[in-house]
Amino acid sequence: MEIVAIHQISPDQVILFQWGWIVINATLVYTWLVMGILVIGSALITSRLSLERTMPRWQNLLEIILSGVLSEIRQIDREGAENYFPFVSTLFLFILFANILTFIPGYVAPTSSLTTTAALAVLVFFAVPIFGIAKLGFIEYFREYFRPNALFLPFHVMGELSRTLALAVRLFGNLMSHEKVIAILLAVTPLFFPIVMQALGLLIGIIQAYIFAILAMVYIASASQAHGEKETQGGKAQTHGKER
Amino acid sequence: MDSVSIVAAVSIVTAGLCMSIGSIGPALGQGRAVQSALGSIAQQPDERNSLTRTLFVGLAMMESIAIYCFVISMILVFANPFWTYIVKNAGG
């Protein structure tokens, strides 16, 4: 069974329900499915937390995931890790679940549509100045754009825009290409190879979720660190951020 | 040739060329990156975690170049704007 036909490059083109100008497409349905799973699941888990020596197993799972994310963030930016943690871990969890639920037949990852990934990248685009201004103040943040001198202003702006585009297209391209590869393999060698590629696809999905979160973190960290302290704490993060 | 077949032929050939030429560079770059990462892990096994993390981020960045080429060729083959324009005009 196939939701997205092979000649459709995005689940946006699969229209499940249309009433006037209200169009419900597959991307919308699966996005809300993932959000519902995340919200209801975490509400159920956090409704009975315990500080005892024995804790519920789901609480254990959630703690492992979130403390892993927090320690990754701490390695990039030690001081403000708790500030960025809700935003970055939400991005990570949403993309992670959107990607790894693809092992369910009939499910189409909402991240294989350019609209979803563009929305996520726009979130990062706006989060960078928000966190930067909150940390450094308005003047100090915008002074970064004029370093080393005012001639570099257009390059900084171009860099922000192009890395947002790269963030969106990277996630979209990886997930979409993986889906297409499986569809083509199903037509060519339907017996065994698609399963191997599915397993590889789970790995790709996890890595892409990780990379999206790490890159968002690196961009935010590089924007919200003052120029003077770059060499001490965030040397690694800085080199990442400037490479793009 | 009429314009429909010209657009079709150019789109298909360009999609193949885009994918093949565009994957040479990322393949070479990924090979070099993995090579030096393996060398570094062999020299310093203690730094394995941070090396692997940086390697994955770097690999994904290189791979995204090939993915851009793939997206372009998918657009050329499946969602070609010129093709839809030509077909709409030809159909009247």
Topology:
The complex is a heterodimer of chains A (244) and B (92).
Chain A: E1 15-19, E2 22-25, H1 26-47, H2 57-76, H3 81-100, H4 114-136, H5 138-143, H6 153-188, H7 193-223, H8 235-243
Antiparallel strand pairs in A: 1-2
Chain B: H1 3-22, H2 24-43, H3 48-78, H4 81-91
Question: What would a concise description of this structure say?
Answer:
The complex is a heterodimer of chains A (244) and B (92). Chain A is mostly helical and 244 residues long. Chain A has one domain.
Question: How would you describe the overall organization of this protein?
Answer:
The complex is a heterodimer of chains A (244) and B (92). Chain A is mostly helical and 244 residues long. Chain A has one domain (11-243). Chain A is 68% helix and 4% strand. Chain A has helices spanning 26-47, 57-76, 81-100, 114-136, 138-143, 153-188, 193-223, 235-243; strands at residues 15-19, 22-25. A two-stranded antiparallel ribbon of chain A has the order 1-2. In chain A, helix 2 (57-76) packs across helix 3 (81-100) and helix 3 (81-100) packs antiparallel against helix 7. With 92 residues, chain B is mainly α. Chain B has a single domain (3-79), classed as F1FO ATP Synthase (Up-down Bundle), CATH 1.20.20.10. Chain B contains four helices and no strands. Chain B has helices at 3-22, 24-43, 48-78, 81-91. The longest helix of chain B is centred in the C-terminal third of the chain and has 31 residues, at 48-78. Chain B is rod-shaped and about 65 Å long. The interface between A and B is medium-sized, with 22 and 16 residues.
